[in-house]
Amino acid sequence: MAIKKILVEPNKLLRQVSQPVAEVDKQIQKIMDDMLETMYSANGIGLAAIQIGVPKNLIVIDLLTKEKKKNPMFFVNPKIIKKSSKMSKYEEGCLSIPNLFAEVQRPSECEIEYLDYEGNKTSLKATGLLATCIQHEMDHLKGILFIDYLSKLKRDIILKKLSKQNLEQKRLVI
Ligand code: NI
C-alpha cells in the first residue's frame, strides 16, 4: 500500500468523468488499497479514485464510527438504483477542498448496486451519514464537487478561501 497525493480543487482532473472497471483484478485491488491508506492518512471518511488522479469508478469509505474501529468499504462501479424523496442536510467537507465545509441537501436514503473488493455483485441500502457519503463520492465519479450545489455566493466564498489556502501551501513547499 502507498499513500498517494490527493488532488485539490481547482484541478481539471477532478472534473473528469470516471470510467467503469472491466474486471476487479489485482491491479484494481491495489488501487483501492492505496486509496484506503491515503484516505486514512488524511483523516477522511470517503475517497474516490479520481481524487488520486485515477479516472475509474472506484470508491472507498470508512465512517470510522464505533470507537474508531476500522470498517473499510469498497465500491466498484457503484450505481444508485433507488433514492428516497425524503431529503436530509449534512455539513459536508471533501479531501479535495480541505478544511472547508458547507451544508448540502441530498436524498436521506439510497440503494446502490456495486461490485465488492472481490468482484462480487452486491447491493446495499444506505441511510444517514453513509447515504450522504456514498452520494458525495459517486458525484466525484461524474466530476461533481459538493460546492457545485451551493449558491454562487457561498461557492465563491469557499473558492476564495481555498485559493488562499493553496497559496499558503505553496509557500510552505518553497
Ligand atoms: Ni469529496
Topology:
Layout: H1 26-41, E1 46-48, E2 58-61, H2 65-68, E3 73-83, E4 87-94, E5 97-107, E6 109-115, E7 121-127, H3 128-141, H4 152-173
Antiparallel strand pairs: 1-2, 2-3, 3-6, 4-5, 6-7
Bound molecules: nickel (II) ion (NI).
Q: How is this structure best described in words?
A:
There is one protein chain. The protein is an alpha+beta fold and 174 residues long. The chain has a single domain (12-170), classed as Peptide Deformylase. It is built from four helices and seven strands, in the order αββαβββββαα. It is globular, with a radius of gyration of 16 Å. Residues 94-96, 136, 140 line the site of nickel (II) ion.
Strand order in the sheet with the most strands: 1-2-3-6-7
Low-confidence segments:
none
What small-molecule ligands were found? nickel (II) ion
Count of distinct structural domains: 1
Radius of gyration, in Å, reads 16 Å
Strand fraction: 25-35%
Distance between the termini: 28 Å
Q: What is the number of beta strands?
A: 7
SSE run = HEEHEEEEEHH
Compose a concise summary of this entry:
The protein has 174 residues and is an alpha+beta fold. The chain is 32% helix and 29% strand. The chain has a single domain, classed as Peptide Deformylase (Alpha-Beta Complex).
Descriptors:
174 residues, alpha+beta, Peptide Deformylase, five-stranded antiparallel β-sheet, two-stranded antiparallel sheet, 4 helices, globular, binds nickel (II) ion
